[in-house]
Predict the structure.
Amino acid sequence: MKAIAIFAEEHDFDADELRGFAGNWFPHMDCNQPLWAVLNAYRVMDENGIHESDTEAFMEYLALLSWDVEEAGSRFEECFRGQWDSMEGFAHDQLMETDEEYRAAQESCRGWSPSIDIVAWNCDHSITRSGYVFSSH
């Protein structure tokens, strides 16, 4: 596609790598200008040092931000929390990692589990269809 070759040349990218990236992600883009979104996602990932292994998470974050590639690129690293099966799982794991009292209570009261206010977690975090969790701020 000529647009890919031109974009690759303008930004000093390997045209074949860019074609491969576009071919993989173009069918998944749900926006008005899918090719533009894919090409600029590639550029922004490169500019912000977002690792290739985080491409799927970045593309889902991009969708959460209504395809604002510049915003997604500048905030991805600080907002990405990882991948969980559910918001409840994320909240539970975060409590286990950060709350020593919670861990001590778990050890002394086997089977005891505090109620987790998922509404509060949902206000501060978003979870994508693939389970990628991002903080909202």
The beta strands are 80-83, 125-127, 132-135. The longest strand covers residues 80-83. The chain has a mean pLDDT of 87.
